[in-house]
Protein 1
Amino acid sequence: MKRTILVAGATGNLGNRICRELIQRGAFVKAIVRESTDTDKIEILKELGVEVSIIDLNDVNAIVAECANVDCVVSAVAGLGDVIIDLQKKILEGAIKAGVPRFIPSDFCTDYNFLPEGENRNFDLRRTFKKYIDQSPIRVTSIFNGCFADILKYNTPILNLKDKSIGYWGDKADWKLDFTTMDNTASFTAEAALDDSAPRNLQIASFQISPHTISNDVREITGQEFNLHQLATLENFAEYIRKQRADDLGGENELYAKFQQGQYMYSMFTTQHNDLANDRYEGIIWTTGINYLKTFLQ
């Protein structure tokens, strides 16, 4: 019997991919979008075969109607508290009222369950919603993909192509960082959405790679020697982030404020995914670190 999956945040970069992967697996896919959504993005979804409903996402009854006979709701929404907490609560309420058995929240990040509260604002928003959803009667599966691999293209301190440098904090030149491509994340999420036995938490990573290994791979691909160096101690980095946040009150209203970017980097060097579920589903071809680096270094 064909499964029906509803996706919120379907017009986003990840949400669109999740819809594609679900359709490729034979699912009937529905998407709920705001009235203000770009019509071009809606057309892209429709061309994939997604049934798109334009509704008032503040109207729980409208969400209930769209959730009728749905097997799982996947949330790929992105934002601050008004989205990750408030909007997801409305989607959750609609799903529960409609009798949807399963929910995948927008937890596409490093597994924050192993991090102290207060170290990462955006993770704390997800932690707040987790406490709420875990008190509900719906079955929940969170997918933790570490960091999206795209960050390696953006000249961050971890890999700066302009400066030809590779940085790390503390003594963690050999610390393995968790990276997952958008496509791998979408494929795995589609499988989990169709898997009624999926557990509460699933950790994945396309590849786990250290700054030292990045340096070796860059040398192999380009023939160039990048400067591998310590940026600061982890303690000094944490203090710098706290000061940066205190000095930037406006950043509290920005999804990727400077201090938040620092918090993401800090989290990458203080926790790891040690229980990967990559082998749970057959047919997913996981991108390796060196192959991903080749996509933009060659």
Protein 2
Amino acid sequence: MRTTQRTGLAVAGALALVCGAAALPASAAEPTGLDRYYTQDLDWYACALGPDDETGQRLDAAGARCAELTVPLDYTEPDGRTLTVAVSRLAATDPDERVGPLLLNNGGPGGASLDMPLTVGRAMGAVAEQYDLIGVDPRFVGRSTPLDCGWDIGTAVFSAGMDRAAFRESVAVQRDLAERCERTEGDVLPYVTTRNTARDMDVLRGALGERKISYLGYSYGSYLGQVYTRMFPGRTDRMVLDGVPSAAQYSQTLLAGNERVGQRALRAWADWAAERDADYGLGATRAEVLATVDRVLRAAAEEPLRVGDFTVDEHFAPLVFFIPLFSDLPENRAVLADMAVTLVRAADREPDVRPDPVLEEVLTGLLTGQGSAAASVQTAIICGDVAERRGIGSYWKAVQSARTVSPVVGPIARNISACEFWDAPVERPTVIDNDVPALLVNATGDTRTRYESARQVRAQWPSSRLVTVAGAGQHGIFGEYGNACADRQVNTYLDTGRLPGRDVTCQK
């Protein structure tokens, strides 16, 4: 799950034609009839769609151009319905040293990535001059052919609550979310999958006229990169996977197993807040701050908190504390402290408690239909990949066990998923059993893609190297955390194509 300043909660962001080898047709292992997709000409145009399109305007100002890639909805029926996939390109400015295209994915699942050439380009510095930086909104995301289940909330990830009655409410909500998706988008749901996104990537490779692509993916984007290399071996050049979930971690409860690292992050934030008790008044010790958090959550369970126009109940109040735990940077800890102060006032039943702009944005994304499209796609991808019927009671048992490890994170990480009520995936999940040279990057205190998962991928891929940022509680390192050591390792690899001789540990 990708959660950064750019993308929010993933619960609840080129000037000239590319020169290169001729486009490759589909391999013998792929369905026939795909040549017209692989050999299509991309029509590059100005990115801004109008005066209010800030993303497009930023891309245009940087010299990028945009296009729409045509792909089949169902790769087994290439003559059937088609989709468009939105693409941006910031062309290499050093043609003599050009490496080729670097495809970018911001995670999610379902994270919009069209603007990534701007953010990644800044992190790469002069190295970016060697690459065509390619941003892609995957199928059904952002500017691509849309999908929206018409939900009243903007996330399918929320807490089970305090007791079994609250858990039963979770069950009812997840069942309703799944049924709405089936009613509104049922004809396309079987094709909202990671495997199809990987196929779209390969069509884009062909349309760009390239034999190989380089790739940088964050979080779920790391998993997508793993799937692509397995489905299309030999078609990648330089690969960077930042925030690395293993195939074992990729399940319908993506956060399961992260309770301990989440609790450590919450305690570390409580220590930080306690040192600033004069500023926030949340408690002078870790224990006092954690007791304040508990008081807020219990108050939300007794009666939902009123924060401006929002009603925050026991399913969503824990998310307000969990969301900022993706990063231990001081500015993110301050955001959580500010939001906590507001929730404390609401828990004390003060009249007319108003959210600040950050909390208002968070609550709008979680509690209103404004976040429906992004949440629908995220859920559809996960459920389309790995949905299985586990039995409702199994989730409650897991929640109760996880609650003893982390009262805040446990009931979120182990809560029932809409996938419990989803049709079985059309395809089996990809078995990642290959070995690919890649640079893996992960912090030891990552609360979304835990460090153990990155180590599992490193063991699976002996040709890879792992850059560890020790002591950091950060999800997404390169260009986001300000760790010069890790950024240097990534840029050196992208510049030279040579992995470090051994794994590298960078200190926080």
